[in-house]
Design brief:
The chain is mainly alpha-helical and about 325 residues long. The chain has 15 helices and no strands. It has two domains: about 80 residues, no CATH class; about 240 residues, Orthogonal Bundle (MetI-like fold), CATH 1.10.3720.10. The longest helix is centred in the middle third of the chain and has 38 residues. Pfam families: BPD_transp_1 (PF00528).
Amino acid sequence: MKYYARRLAFYAITLWAAISLNFFLPRLMPGDAEDIFRAKFAQTGDLTPAMEKAIQLLFGSSDESSLWDQYLTYWNNILHGDLGTSLTKYPAPVAELIAQALPWTLVLVGLATVLSFIIGIALGVWVGWRRGTWVDGVIPGSTLLQSVPYFWLALILVAVFSVNLAWFPIIGGYDVFDFPDGPEASWAFVSSAIYHGFLPALTIVLSSVGGWLLGMRNMMVSTLSEDYITTAEAKGLRPSRVLTTYATRNAIMPSLAGFSVSLGFVVAGSIVMEQVFSYPGIGKLMIGAVEGKDFALMQGVFLVITITVLAANFLVDLLYGFIDPRARHND
């Protein structure tokens, strides 16, 4: 029980530190979101005192409020789900924009990450178990795909399958001509989304499966040389049981830790990949926020990413302690 209590306390402190940094860092950067907003309004005419007051209320600041008061207000807004108002897409709330983009990234990048992990681990177990045979020839090809920058791989897939062969669409998350009113709950829309998301998902799988394969293969080779594997084989246990219960279960531990980090960064999406395919996910939203100096939107996206990474690591820590009792006793 102490293991889980310490893990919970650690992640609670980390979450507090991350949210505090998310508040202070934009205020330490050069430039001011309010000044940028005033400049945009000034381009359309004179900035009246009423508009000035509205901007102060919008950003939750005034000449009388101290940094500490703004910090407390920021925490209060977060606890109430208020992440501010977007500058580039005014007057849309940041929470609404993130809620619109988040499902696209979760479905696409989440499924692709889980799929690449499963494929890579399964191939790694197979290659490690059959080490020294022709199966090791799979490693150079997967390593080559891993070394290719994923945005370059995305451009190659677009050039071949979208431009030359015209098998898949070039941009978008669905066919905007078939669904002019936006997403809807129908099989036709789901089919369109799968069709548009196939190449982006394939990009993620091809560029990441090699890392899981190589890491799992090396851990399998190391684990198979342990004394308890030799003892299990000497007992006459079935090779399938030695493979699954003794070898794979222990060799997969480092991969699970790495998977927790990858799963947490699912929300961040593959930023450049989403930009290449103009996919309406969190990554594309963040690029737009950076280009438009939309501090409120950047803070909101970074906050969601941070919380997701911490939550994923916390859940895998709990799973790690359940799978390997040694982690609970050594903590």
